[in-house]
């Protein structure tokens, strides 16, 4: 099983060269180098140049690099796509995806300009239409031509568009999150939780990370470097979870159990669905450990 941890995914403003440089030393699993919301109209072109220079220059180690472009229908969208494809990031984040056509169109543009297949697409789910159409959007992930590999929740925009109250228990947001998680899982996609705005509220942030993980999120998008460490901690499998997962794998590997659908392990009934979950838990833990070792070698 090949997995890529996406516990902590930090937005970095493309207009801030110092931030782009600092990101090389942050322990985030992925970086979203932003050309959209964090960049004023008059700074879009300069930010695009900054980001392309940063990606081309490298130095980000094992971090997954994602460029968030402006919507294709804006004055900057097509140039953003061409520039992003030219430096071959791991993915391009498409903003304000409302229908499957928003992803299909971008995928076709990337194909037309011969962007390498390794450049994937992530979709911002930040409009009411994106929630209503999440199944159809996620279904695009079944066809490699569409390049779709991850859904990103834009909870701030969803709250604004729905006129819901932003309460700490996220009572208004949970149905949207849950619907999108199920759609993503149906088609083998990762899904990331939205940002937590008050980066000085450590307790509230950790609670929301725990909430997202309980729902089934793969990780969380972040707005401040101080959020990376706690986020990584919450979204990493615990030692107990990894130990139990290894026991499940070992038990099913025993000759007497290899063809059984259900076994008993330490007084608990364990099915093959638990084996699938266990293998993913171990794969994530191993990938995190490999990243840690790479980071130590890098620095």
Question: Could you characterize the architecture of this molecule?
Answer:
The chain is an alpha/beta fold. The protein contains twelve helices and ten strands. The protein has helices at 17-22, 44-57, 77-87, 100-112, 128-132, 134-139, 155-162, 174-186, 202-215, 228-235, 239-253, 272-298, and strands at residues 8-13, 30-34, 64-68, 91-94, 120-125, 148-153, 190-193, 219-222, 262-265, 268-271. It has an eight-stranded parallel β-barrel with strand order 1-2-3-4-5-6-7-8, surrounded by six helices. Strand 3, helix 3 and strand 4 (91-94) form a beta-alpha-beta unit. Helix 9 packs parallel to helix 10. The protein is globular and about 65 Å long. The two termini are 28 Å apart. The model has no long low-confidence stretch (mean pLDDT 95).
Please tag this protein with its features.
299 residues, alpha/beta, 12 helices, 10 strands
Roughly what fraction of the amino acids lie in strands? 15-25%
Rounded to the nearest angstrom, the distance between the terminal CA atoms is: 28 Å
List low-confidence stretches. Answer: none
**What proportion of the residues is helical, as a percent range?**
40-55%
Number of helices: 12
User: What number is the mean pLDDT?
Assistant: 95
Give the number of DSSP strands: 10
Radius of gyration: 20 Å
The strand line-up of the biggest sheet is 1-2-3-4-5-6-7-8
Q: What general outline do the C-alpha atoms trace?
A: globular
Largest sheet: 8 strands, parallel, barrel
Q: Secondary-structure element sequence?
A: EHEHEHEHEHHEHHEHEHHEEH
In terms of structural class, how would the helical and strand content be classed?
alpha/beta
């Amino acid at each position: 099983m090949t997995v890529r941890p996406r516990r902590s995914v930090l937005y970095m403003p493309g207009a801030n060269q110092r931030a782009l440089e600092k990101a090389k030393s942050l322990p985030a699993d992925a970086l979203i180098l932003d050309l959209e919301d964090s960049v004023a109209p008059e700074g879009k072109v300069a930010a695009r140049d900054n980001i392309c220079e940063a990606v081309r220059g490298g130095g980000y180690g094992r971090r997954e690099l994602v460029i968030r472009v402006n919507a294709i229908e804006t004055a900057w969208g097509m140039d953003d796509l061409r520039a992003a494809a030219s430096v071959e990031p791991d993915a391009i984040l498409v903003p304000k995806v409302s229908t499957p056509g928003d992803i299909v169109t971008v995928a076709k543009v990337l194909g037309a300009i011969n962007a390498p297949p390794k450049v994937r697409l992530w979709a911002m789910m930040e409009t009411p239409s994106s929630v209503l159409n999440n199944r159809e959007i996620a279904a695009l992930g079944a066809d490699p031509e569409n390049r779709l590999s991850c859904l990103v929740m834009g909870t701030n925009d969803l709250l604004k568009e729905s006129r819901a109250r932003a309460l700490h228990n996220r009572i208004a947001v949970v149905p949207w999150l849950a619907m999108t998680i199920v759609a993503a899982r149906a088609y083998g996609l990762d899904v990331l939780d939205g940002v937590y705005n008050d980066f000085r509220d450590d307790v509230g942030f950790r609670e929301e990370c725990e909430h997202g993980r309980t729902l089934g999120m793969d990780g969380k998008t972040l707005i401040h470097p101080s959020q990376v460490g706690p986020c990584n901690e919450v979204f990493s499998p615990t030692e107990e979870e990894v130990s139990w997962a290894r026991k499940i794998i070992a038990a099913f590997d025993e000759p007497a159990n290899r063809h059984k659908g259900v076994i008993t392990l330490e007084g608990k009934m364990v099915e093959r669905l638990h084996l699938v979950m266990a293998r993913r838990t171990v794969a994530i833990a191993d990938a995190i450990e490999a990243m840690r070792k790479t980071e130590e070698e890098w620095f």
